[in-house]
Amino acid sequence: MDQHQERVLREVAARDIRFIRLWFTDVAGVLKSLAIDPGELEDAFTEGIGFDGSSIEGLTRVHESDMLLVPDAQTFQLLPWRNAKESVARMFCDVHTPDGQKAHSDPRAVLQRAVERARALGFTVMVHPEIEFYLLRQPVSIDHMIPVDNAGYFDHVARGDSNDFRRQAVRMLEDMGIAVEFSHHEGGPGQNEIDLRAVDAVTAADNIMTARTVIEEVALRESLVATFMPKPFIDHPGSGMHTHISLFEGDENAFYEPSGEYQLSLTGKRFIAGLLEHAYELTAVTNQHVNSYKRLWGGAEAPAYVCWGHNNSSALVRVPLYKPDKRRAARIEYRALDPAANPYLALAVLIMAGLDGIEKKRELMPEAEGNVWDLTDRERQVLGIRALPSSLSSAVRGMRESDLVAEALGEEVFAYVVRNKEKEWHEYRRQVTPQEIRQFLKVY
User: Fold this and answer.
1) pTM of the predicted model as reported, rounded to 2 decimal places
2) Which of 45, 76, 98 is the last residue of a domain?
3) What whole-number distance in Å separates Cα of residue 410 and Cα of residue 412?
4) 361 belongs to a structural domain
5) Which of 211, 313, 354, 359 counts the most CB atoms within 10 A of its CB?
6) Is 245 known to sit in a ligand binding site?
7) 244 marked ligand binding residue
8) Residue 281, marked binder
9) In a domain, 222, yes or no
10) Is residue 270 located within the same domain as residue 339?
11) Of 98, 128, 162, which residue constitutes the final position of a domain?
């Protein structure tokens, strides 16, 4: 038993913690939870907790159903929204097979493999996500979605629900050891954003899952509903999860070069080139739902075209403004990702695409300097700017042909994602929407 596990056992005893929740995700990115008694914790560390993996989306087939949850002691935190008189803690888990090997179908293991690939090349991956979401008033139904306010970007709403909500959510996140960099009102009515500080890639994915849970818990406590739906309203901006990535070699930021354009190093340029090269084929992972494409193609600065730029909010990849004397802050921003993605799988494919650019020394295309949405199709074609998939169906077709995404996800997860997304598209295609009924139904 290692020092982290021993520390957790001591803390559980000292705080008289009554329940411990073991968290993990299915392949679709849905958080799963199993509660154990503290008396089972030592065995959970050494042997794992058995469960039926065939009942979890994408983890295993029925005839291979036995799986084990092994808690990661470094993720131990108290749940701050629980009753203080009955302390409850949580830990993220790795999923193992009965022979003690990490399950290839575990999304956390998929990301860990990508991180190991980066480490083999001498890099540590740091990730800083910006999580956007809408707050709605209850009751919420298909025909009744009312935002909590009519405010806009960076607006301060006196005595507003969004202000109180963000304050409580940030406090809970920081109580759980998750540092928050910013929180503010976004562009749509009732739309908010919480930005988490940069941490290593696996911790970042854990933090995204935790943040989504905290946001939903705080919303319910305030009689509100939080939604991470990429495009809940036709006439208002969609919700993205702009993701900042940097690579470090030891303590040095591998993306920083003081003499480079925008202080971006050759390594950083090649990383961007890899992202752009593979952007089309990995979009089914970073934007995994039918609704995701209504955000990407809905305008309002959503990135629908494969290009990069400096402070260009219409570009797929942005190189943020460099802050003098803050070389550690040099990074790139991938803008297509949305908050409904499975963060483990999405970060894995982004990392692998960027590393491919570094390993193959890919050349970075010229910068897009203006609003890419304002260009004609012919102008984009001349500039070599391709479009992202316009639908989930197109994205899955692109993913099917991708050796890189198949390698990043592994055979089992790759096959499941393709099947699952094709099923979602077929179900969507069968629907008759209210808009179609309004268009064709004649009432006399």
Assistant:
1) 0.95
2) 98
3) 6
4) yes
5) 354
6) yes
7) yes
8) no
9) yes
10) yes
11) 98
Question: Per the domain annotation, does 106 fall within a domain?
Answer: no
Query: Do 75 and 119 belong to one domain?
Result: no
Binding residue per annotation — 132?
yes
335 annotated binding-site participant: yes
Q: From residue 30, how far is each of 16, 24, 72, 343, 444 by CA, in Å?
A: 30, 8, 19, 10, 46
**Residue 277 annotated as binding?**
no
Q: Token pair 């042909």 is at which residue?
A: 401
Distance CA 246, CA 249 (A): 10
Consult the annotation and say whether 351 binds a ligand: no
Same domain for 126 and 28: no
Tokens linked to 132: 């956007």
- For residue 149, is it within any domain? yes
Same-domain status, 120 and 11: no
Compute the distance between CA of residue 262 and CA of residue 330 in angstroms, rounded to an integer: 9
Number of domains, the chain? 2
Which one, of 266, 246, 248, 250, lies nearest residue 258 by Cα? 266
Mark whether 38 and 140 lie in a shared domain: no
Per-residue pLDDT of the chain (444 residues; tens, 9 = 90+): 899 999 999 999 999 999 999 999 999 999 999 999 999 999 999 999 999 887 777 776 544 578 999 999 999 999 998 766 789 999 999 999 999 999 999 999 999 999 999 999 999 999 999 999 999 999 999 889 999 999 888 777 765 677 789 999 999 999 999 999 999 999 999 999 999 999 999 999 999 999 999 999 999 999 999 999 999 999 999 999 999 999 999 999 999 999 999 999 999 999 999 999 999 999 999 999 999 999 999 877 799 999 999 988 899 999 997 666 678 889 999 999 999 999 999 999 999 999 999 999 999 999 998 899 999 999 999 999 999 999 999 999 999 999 999 999 999 999 999 999 999 999 999 999 988 998 998 766
Domain with 49 in it: 3-98
Same domain, 69 and 195: no
d(CA 147, CA 138): 9
47 in a known ligand binding site: no
